[in-house]
Amino acid sequence: MTEGQTTANQPQDEQEERAVLTVEHLVKQYPQAQSPVLNDISFQVPKGKVFVVLGPSGSGKSTLLRTIAGLEPIQGGRILLDGQVVETGHPLGKHGGGPGGLMSGSRSSDLRTRIGMVFQSYDLFPNRTVLDNVTLAPVLVQKRKRDQARQEALELLDRVGLADRRDAWPSQLSGGQRQRVAICRALILHPEIMLFDEVTAALDPEMVREVLQVILELADQGLTMMIVTHEMAFARGIADHIVLLDGGTLVEQSDDPEAFFTHPATDRAQRFLSTFTYERRRDQDQDQESR
């Protein structure tokens, strides 16, 4: 096993860097489901680091982000933000009923804005301009002055190359542009951690690069992030820590991304990474045809 890699699903007892996000033994189970979609998940995300979650479709990656963001209740474990417990799980009732943790929307507005999330879909308000989409939440939710929010929104749009599109409608933007607006809309709330859920999944290849470049720049600026992605080259380049999620459990963790991609510690990780390797057997096929 390469140094920095573990197969155990346990948080480190001693953390050299302050953990912005701590997840302890998290369980997520839907009513009537025979088994949890997430089972005994534990990890920490240190301040200023990029935490990447990989895994096959249906492994629970997006559900994990949604529980952290408070959009899904949990049935076990705890979620802590900067050492403060923001959610404690409660089991479902005998017949699958019961609260099953705090329901979505039960967190205070302050807690909700401390965790930013950008989804696969852009979810911009179609009847508002780009600038209005970015300034709406800080004005209505955080009660900030409109002029102050407008100035910061313009600065954010300039950072992502969209200052000249501030008065455009979402329908007038490309998919990559809309996703960059969604990133600005989350950043303006000053979250302690940003969650990105496969933000390039709905984009064509040319638009993928422009969105990923923005996220790379945010990482260089020290923003704490948790990223779910199927872009392996991007994950390899941006991650400080990588986990592989499969069947609702963490099967491998590594704080050495290069080692994870070149020498994975588990057979499951090896099989997962092999699905992104393609090779044609041209020479072998030609030899068979010539015989």
Automatic annotation (TrEMBL):
<dbReference type="GO" id="GO:0016887">
    <property type="term" value="F:ATP hydrolysis activity"/>
</dbReference>
<dbReference type="Pfam" id="PF00005">
    <property type="entry name" value="ABC_tran"/>
</dbReference>
<dbReference type="InterPro" id="IPR003439">
    <property type="entry name" value="ABC_transporter-like_ATP-bd"/>
</dbReference>
<dbReference type="GO" id="GO:0005524">
    <property type="term" value="F:ATP binding"/>
</dbReference>
<comment type="similarity">
    <text>Belongs to the ABC transporter superfamily.</text>
</comment>
<dbReference type="InterPro" id="IPR030679">
    <property type="entry name" value="ABC_ATPase_HisP-typ"/>
</dbReference>
<feature type="domain" description="ABC transporter">
    <location>
        <begin position="21"/>
        <end position="272"/>
    </location>
</feature>
<dbReference type="InterPro" id="IPR017871">
    <property type="entry name" value="ABC_transporter-like_CS"/>
</dbReference>
<protein>
    <submittedName>
        <fullName>ABC transporter, ATP binding protein, putative General L-amino acid porter</fullName>
    </submittedName>
</protein>
<dbReference type="InterPro" id="IPR003593">
    <property type="entry name" value="AAA+_ATPase"/>
</dbReference>
<keyword id="KW-0067">ATP-binding</keyword>
<keyword id="KW-0813">Transport</keyword>
<keyword id="KW-0547">Nucleotide-binding</keyword>
<dbReference type="InterPro" id="IPR027417">
    <property type="entry name" value="P-loop_NTPase"/>
</dbReference>
<dbReference type="InterPro" id="IPR050086">
    <property type="entry name" value="MetN_ABC_transporter-like"/>
</dbReference>
<dbReference type="GO" id="GO:0015424">
    <property type="term" value="F:ABC-type amino acid transporter activity"/>
</dbReference>
